[in-house]
Design a protein that fits this description.
The protein has 73 residues and is of the alpha+beta class. The protein is 49% helix and 32% strand. A hairpin with a 2-residue loop joins strand 1 and strand 2. The relative contact order is 0.20.
Length: 73
């Protein structure tokens, strides 16, 4: 899988969860990548994904900042 394909796949996973009503609830950096946990706003169901692509990690950081700004409003 090319680097761009990996990024697009991981970006799709994050965007898909956010569209379904999940929010970022936790993240941990590991040697294998960033483990990101999403929790549904109403059902509290949890989903975890592993971000291995550097561009996906940057995109994730942007999503975290957006979420924090929305929570502060």
């Amino acid at each position: 899988m090319s680097t761009n394909d990996a990024f697009q796949s991981e970006k799709f996973q994050m965007d898909n969860l956010l569209e379904k009503g999940y929010i970022i609830s936790d993240s941990k950096g590991t040697l294998d990548g960033d483990v990101v946990e999403f929790m549904h706003k109403t059902t509290f169901d949890k989903k975890t994904i592993l971000l291995t692509n550097p561009d996906s990690r940057k995109y994730f950081a942007i999503l975290c900042i957006k979420q924090q700004k929305q929570a502060a409003e």
